[in-house]
Write a structure and sequence with these properties.
The complex is a heterodimer of chains A (174) and B (288). With 174 residues, chain A is an alpha/beta fold. Helix content of chain A is 22%, strand content 28%. Chain B is of the alpha/beta class and 288 residues long. Chain B folds into two domains: 101 residues, no CATH class; 128 residues, no CATH class. Classes of the chains: A alpha/beta (174), B alpha/beta (288).
Chain lengths: 174, 288
């Protein structure tokens, strides 16, 4: 089993191949549809983002509410293509890891190759399982968005599969 | 004439919404397990990477964890689809039925720590914060019972669904090709392995409802009509030959089942609808 820790530098990701099983640990941020829209609007205005994109990872997830005493609720991936319109700009600003499910567009893959980024798949519909690798969760932006708010997660050995690697190797196009 | 207080309906909807988000029915679990065994055999026979079997193993682990640690199976706890068959000899008391159902959804999603995934308007997209309104399908049936089914629908799979108004000349082959193509186009997006609900006949709106109702059928029961049972078998085989596989990474398990419901239609038409659900095939019913 390959293990990778944040920050996700180009060097750490370069050797990963589509199909590799990887456990990642460290800091990742949650963002899905509405948060992406806002991040892109902030970038367009030249404003500062709620977190530094350099060598960062974004998990496409809108978790269910945490039971009392729990870190987070169910937290599996949402379908990634809905973020395709926004992802290339984030990648060009330093984002290196995206975690979601389902295929990506050509323009996202081109931006990944350009920036040495990797797209990981988490198991869709396995939100209970995925949540067990989340050690802490802190809401850091857009709290009005509820489940779609941006959270800073600390994860330990989150089980992922390299779906598209930094050379464009693509598990969806076998 | 039997009097039923709508409070009972509120309580039933709340309970069903919670239960179905934490535990799948036995037919779904055993179908996933059988598919996993098939993928393990396939991996041994063909010397593939075993990824399909591994993913199905993680899906089974997820089902176990959800029940054991009390975590919803999937974070998308769905738009609450509520089907209610009301006996015509029932007199409902105590308030507005539709509001009673929505109150059940409100309560269930709050008490069950379920995600609120409904926005009030398709464009302004402000979350209603309580997962209402539910999608409610009411029917009046003989008798004095009330049957309530809650089927939370995730939208990763809902977004991959499709409808087509065929001319009758398209025939059964046209329908089959459309169904297989819909699954092919969905690829890895709807969290395969999926369940394919198919509606054929009726009207534009009616056929979509047939497809959605097909998703409520038990996976371990065959279609009573031998011709449609055969069509379901053939479609499942063709779909599982697409090599989409669990999560879209290849394999023989793209769909767990194909379920068809049909209805009479117009001399000029042959509507076909395909409603896709993921492996988190949630629905629970109660009769009061």
């Amino acid at each position: 089993m390959i293990k990778i820790d944040s920050p996700f530098t180009k060097e750490k990701l370069a050797g990963l191949k589509a199909g590799d099983k990887v456990n990642i640990s460290g800091i990742i941020y949650t963002a899905r549809d509405q948060a992406h829209k806002r991040l892109i609007e902030m970038l367009a205005k030249g404003g500062e983002l709620p977190f530094d994109l350099t060598d960062a990872g974004i998990y496409y997830v809108g978790p269910s509410p945490a039971h009392p005493g729990c870190v987070i609720g169910s937290a599996g991936p949402t379908t990634s293509y809905r973020m395709d319109a926004y992802a290339p700009a984030l990648l060009d600003h330093g984002l290196k890891v995206m975690i979601g499910k389902g295929p990506r567009s050509e323009s996202v893959i081109e931006a990944m190759k350009r920036n040495g980024a990797v797209y990981f798949a988490a198991i869709g519909g396995a939100g209970a399982l995925m949540s067990t690798s989340i050690v802490s969760s802190e809401l850091i932006a857009f709290d009005d968005l509820g489940t779609e708010a941006v959270r800073k997660l600390i994860v330990k050995d989150m089980p992922l599969i390299v779906a598209i690697d930094s050379k464009g190797g693509n598990l969806y196009e076998r | 004439m039997r009097e039923v207080d709508v409070k009972l309906i509120t309580e039933a909807v709340a309970r069903l919404a919670i239960d179905t988000n934490y535990d799948l029915s036995r037919d779904v679990k055993s179908c996933i397990h059988d598919c996993r065994l098939k993928e393990i055999r396939e991996a041994m026979d063909s010397d593939n990477s075993g990824l399909a079997a591994d993913i199905l193993g993680m899906i089974e682990d997820n089902i176990e964890l959800a029940a054991e640690k009390n975590i919803p199976l999937c974070q998308d706890t769905g738009l609450a689809c509520v089907f209610i068959d009301i006996g015509q000899d029932v007199h409902l008391t105590g308030g507005d039925l539709r509001e009673a159902i929505n109150e059940g959804v409100r309560r269930g999603y709050e008490e069950g720590y379920l995600r609120k995934s409904v926005v009030a308007d398709p464009f302004t997209r402000i979350n209603t914060q309580d997962n209402t309104p539910a999608h409610i399908v009411m029917d009046i049936v003989p008798g004095e019972n009330i049957k309530i089914t809650v089927a939370p629908k995730g939208f990763g799979s809902e977004n991959m669904s499709s409808i087509k108004m065929f001319p009758p000349a398209a025939g059964i082959e046209g329908a089959k090709t459309f169904i297989v193509e819909t699954v092919k186009n969905a690829g890895g997006n709807p969290c395969p392995p999926i369940v394919v609900g198919v509606g054929i006949g009726s009207t534009f709106d009616g056929v979509a409802l047939l497809a959605k109702k097909a998703l409520l059928l038990p996976l371990d029961e065959r279609n009573e009509d031998p011709a449609y049972a055969e069509m379901e078998d053939e479609l499942l085989e063709r779909i599982n030959e697409l090599d989409i596989g669990p999560q879209g990474f290849g394999g023989k398990t793209t769909a767990l089942a194909v379920k068809i419901l049909t209805a009479p239609t117009h001399i000029a038409g042959m509507p076909v609808a395909v409603n896709i659900n993921c492996h988190v095939q949630r629905h629970k019913s109660v009769t009061i």
